TrEMBL record:
Keyword Transmembrane helix included in the entry's annotation: no
Name of this chain's protein: Transposase Tn5 dimerisation domain-containing protein
Domain of life: Bacteria
Domain Transposase Tn5 dimerisation: residue ranges: 17-74
Protein's organism: Polaromonas naphthalenivorans (strain CJ2)
SUPFAM superfamilies: Ribonuclease H-like
Keywords noted in UniProt: Plasmid
Length: 80
C-alpha cells in the first residue's frame, strides 16, 4: 500500500524507481516531482518537449511496474 504522505512516498518508491530507470539514487532525498516523473517513465511516458502533462494511467502503469519489481525482490528474499 502506498502512503499518503509525500515524504513517505518518496522514501519508499524512489529507490526502486531509480533502479528500474537505470539511474543512481541521489544522496539527498529527491523531490516528489522527480519521483513522479521517474514512475511515469516506467509507465511509458517519454518526457519529450511536446508530450504535455502526465496522465493518471501512465503513473498507474509505472506504479504497477514498481510493485511487481518489489514483489519479485520480496519473493527472492523469502526463498533463500
Amino acid at each position: 500500500m502506498v502512503s499518503r504522505s509525500p515524504r513517505k512516498f518518496c522514501r519508499k518508491i524512489s529507490p526502486p524507481a531509480f533502479i528500474l530507470n537505470q539511474k543512481r539514487p541521489p544522496d539527498t532525498p529527491p523531490k516528489l516531482n522527480e519521483v513522479v516523473h521517474l514512475v511515469a517513465r516506467l509507465g511509458g511516458f517519454l518526457a519529450r518537449k511536446g508530450d504535455g502533462e502526465l496522465s493518471v494511467k501512465i503513473i498507474w502503469l509505472g506504479m504497477q511496474r514498481i510493485l511487481d519489481f518489489l514483489a519479485g525482490v520480496r519473493e527472492l528474499c523469502i526463498t533463500k
